[in-house]
Amino acid sequence: MDESKDNMMLSGNEAIARGALEAGIGFCASYPGTPSTEITSTLMKSSADENLYVEWSINEKVALEACAGVSWMGVPAICPMKSLGLNVAADFLLNLNLSGTGEGGLVVVVCDDPRGHSSSNEQDSRFYSKASYLPLLEPTGFQQAKDVIPFAFELSRKYEIPVLVRSTTRLSHSRGIVRLGELPDISWELSDELPSSLYNVPKPHLRHRDLLNKLERISDDFTKSKWNIIEDVRDADVSIIASGICRSYAKEAIRISETDASLLSLVTTHPLPASFIREYLLDSNQALVIEEVDPFIEDAILRHSKSMKKVDIHGKRNGVLPLYGEMDADKILLSMSKIGLIERASDKRDQKAVKKALNALIPRPLTFCPGCTHRNVFWAIRQVRKRFSGKLVVAGDIGCYSLGVFYGDSMNTMQAMGSGIGTANGLGQLHRFGIDSKVIAVAGDSTFFHACIPALINARHKGADATFLILDNSSTAMTGFQPHPGILTRDEDHRRVTIASVVNGIGVDLLEIVDSNDISLLIDSIHNAVQKPGIKVLITKGVCRLEEGRTQGIYDDLPKVRINKKKCRGDSCRLCVSGFGCVALAWDDEKGYPKILDDLCIRCGACVFVCPHDAIEGGLQ
Amino acid sequence: MRDFFDLLIAGVGGQGNLVCGEVISHAAIQQGYSPVIGQIFGASRRGGTVFTHVRIADGNVGPLIPKGRPDLILGLEALETLRACVEYGGEQTRVVFSQTRLDTLASLTGGAKYPSMSDIIQLMSSICKDAVAVDAEKSLEEIGSVRTLNSYMIGVMIGLEITPLNRDTIEKSIDCLLGSRYPNLEAFQRGISDTIKEKT
Fold first, then answer.
1. Do residue B46 and residue A368 have CB atoms under 8 angstroms apart?
2. CB of B44 within 8 A of CB of A229?
3. CB contact A546 to B (< 8 Å)
4. Among A389, A495, A588, B143, which residue's Cβ finds the most Cβ atoms within 10 Å?
């Protein structure tokens, strides 16, 4: 197939963005988060169009609230976010469902991350569709990822409620050919006034009743929906029901095993079109339900199974498929063998040889990039911890610097956005009970704006004893360098809000801004702050070398970093590779000295400071 | 029906693994296929393992090659190629990999031992059909950029004539996608000529 004007190789996320354009949206607000980020960044490329406004919001809750605001006034709005982002936005979502959206329509796209490739959990966000009584669509491939978005807007406008669309990492990040549709001329009109009663009081229970009625009508719509496709086989041995990207795994497993299986690709997964599924399973003795991550559809079917003809429902509940982790064709083949459809799932592999090779493998944990200033800060924290004989706890947060947990335990905790300073509100009160450890909280710049401000105010107000390090590299680096309020952007409408001005406004016992290229200064500043009582804030000014390399090129004109072998103590020291651990520093086993990998080294010179024998030379220092 | 071909690219974040997949799929499109690429980004840029699944097909396949079924594992780094063999290699899988060694933090600190190149080749061959180890270092040094290893390895793959793709379409794709910041086209051609020299 030619990649032409009408057919393009798109990722699932790019397809969703294209679908939003074909739906004629006027507004997108979003906070970046893997694997959802590229939906918004793709739309941003189209935002030169005067009928489309796209923004990186401060967090997902504000993004969704902004989308609701414009939707009420007739502007179609899309709000993409990652799984964990929906937790942040859920407070608003579980009110907006009752209040309703306006004539513009509102679609929330949530991208889940089974296996947690780039997330700290693998939550199945579909439970929010149940919690909020909202319709949910799960596209099964790239084409559908595009096509389903205009339909989601139709549905939202028809019932005046938000519609959820769910993707997963393997759909969002994989690419395939998509047939493009037309981009409409402007398809919406700004309303003159807000819809009436955009509040749920005084009788939220009656709003709930009305929403349940809508959901029943939507269930009827879904029963006749063209999105749910059956590929039927005469006298099939099994009827498979698959959602999302799992459809492609199911097809692959059917092909490999040459099983006689019918396949229902279910796109409208909430509310469950029960009568449609009842009919699909009418002639079946057994069904296999394939989905990621929780048995969401499976449980819904099991709930209706009393009204169905006797059919064995296989899936995650009866243990033929796992209740955790990512799905793939191999797991489906194994499930087929467990229920006796095929003899044994053969993957054409010599298992003995595989096992032997597995034993030879060593893991490759993620680490800071060469020259990353986060490494400098965590190195400094480790030195300060030594000065306090280990009595230092570091509450961490979400971002590139989360890798601190793998860096000699220089970060001890990591949960949600903002949880570092949040948990420090508790840890920082333990002095009254005689805690003998000092408390540090760590957050990045974008995370600071996203979720740290209420926690810092609380810590200040309640007199918590903690040192808060804000690792400012002027970028939302983890997700690809999106701007945040602390960054100067080229957009004339934007006004910069500096972290220091916010912290000053809150008022803290100590505020210092430290250059994170200067490790010696970092160590002294952190040590000094930790010793002082009260709530202390250090803003460490660093750089993202990836971002810098992208925008300014690398430090090619600086002297190369070199090992001075006369000064290096060789194997008796190894501090640079064992302790500091920059990936551009390797060890030459034959010669017994470190060596610099010039193609990786960015010549920041941080290791020059770290070497206690002055045996590393060159770079920025 | 045309021959479909499943190719897994293995490497470390920052080696140009994703770009490698894009070049190959772009070439496949020119040859009338509808490829599907399975990849993950985000963490991939932070020095971790990166596998890119390139499925040269009719568009009707999923983003992941089932275990044991890649036709080719193309490796940009030795340890990660072995990892790909362990996770995905099968009896019909051919392996072509660069002997590039990128240590892990544990292998640097002495906490873990990076397996020897001879062990790696032997283990690969025990799982897969065969394994071709490529020493790209000298050629890349002559070209003047180790950052073009991905293009060089695509060249080796074309030189070995083991995929349905041809030289012209890859050259067009490199030209179209990679620009001229690094000598990618030169590296690709060098990969082909080194391989042909080796064969004769």
1. yes
2. no
3. yes
4. B143
